[in-house]
Amino acid sequence: MRPQFEQMFVKAGVAVPRPRVETASLLLSQAVIQKSDMLAVVPGRVAAHYRDQGLFAILPFALPLTIPPVGVITHAHRPVSPAVGHFLDVVHEIAGLEAREREAGARPRAVSPGAAGSPPAGRRATRSGR
Hints:
This protein is mainly alpha-helical. The protein has 2 domains: 2-52, no CATH class; 69-130, no CATH class. It contains 4 helices and no strands. It has helices at residues 2-11, 26-35, 44-52, 82-104. The chain is extended and about 50 Å long. The chain starts with a helix and ends in a 26-residue tail after the last helix. Residues 1-93 form the LysR substrate-binding domain.
């Protein structure tokens, strides 16, 4: 997402903020924001949580960022663990719901991880995320 974030500044004719820290760690992002005047790009629910706790403010503009497709790779000749199987079931369920909602013109919504059934024990599969 960083290149898209930086391109947003370039298109607006504004200097790209420096220095930068690139991390997938929400804990590190929180620490950096608390100790500096830096910006962070986080999912809306995470931002709302920090805002509701009185820790941070959400800037009043939408980011035109898209997240590219994500893939999941497993070993073709080894069964996945029940936990991995459940995770894959939830990912596929959410991806399917979002695809159906996009087709219907609705906004995607979150699905509780408990909504998917337990995977069969000893499953052997190779799957890819959407």
